Give the backbone structure.
Amino acid sequence: MRVLVTGGSYGIGGATCLRLARDALAKGEPAKIVVSATGVRPDLAELIAELTALGADAKAVTGDLADRDFPKRLVDEAVGFCGGLDALVSNAGARYKGSLLDMPVEEWDRVYAVNTRATWLLGKAAHAALKASRGAIVVVTSIAGKYPLANYGPYSTTKAALIMLVEQMANEWAGDGIRVNGVAPGSTLTREKSQMKVDPKLSAMRAAVVPMGRVSDPSEQAGAIAFLLSKDASYISGHNLVVDGAFGQSVMAFSAGSHSNALKIP
């Protein structure tokens, strides 16, 4: 497995790197993994050390995906390090909290550049290598791409655009042997949501609105990504796999008179 994972130093990205490394090594296959992040952080170094300890060849590359030239440089480094590319996981994302009325144009443009434009540029740059390997792309979208998230306007709209971009790339590149799919996580215990670990009430409230009664662990999202990259998904392309514990289908639980457990919020 020769793979490039963006936003890979923690949360879903890091869990994906570890899952792919373990899966490859369990099959007796070499694992070469390039991980990108915005800057050098302790958790990035820790991830590289953990991947190396597992037996994978791993490399960290830092840079800003809002820079229109960085995606190609990143892919070029990954192809050079790995000797080709079997998979691309576009996981890195940006968000800005604020109302549509108050949001600066610069922040809107940055979220679009990181979340949507960079995914297209990564796929474009990786196309030749993935065509040669008949590889696959998985884009981490979000349930926010299907349901509006108040005060996160550019995040929701970029994720909606990503869902269509997945379909577009899958349609255009199917003839080149490249599969493209999305994974849309629901609430997941990433570093950004680490407050839930130390706030039992917040944790309980988050879990209560999910029909399965809990938020997901990053490893569960990584499992979905690994599946879509695997040969078991060889005839799946252009699909956005929602991994949200049935949250998106639970809106009627909040209607008047409902007796759903989803309403039992502490």
About this structure: The chain has a mean pLDDT of 89.
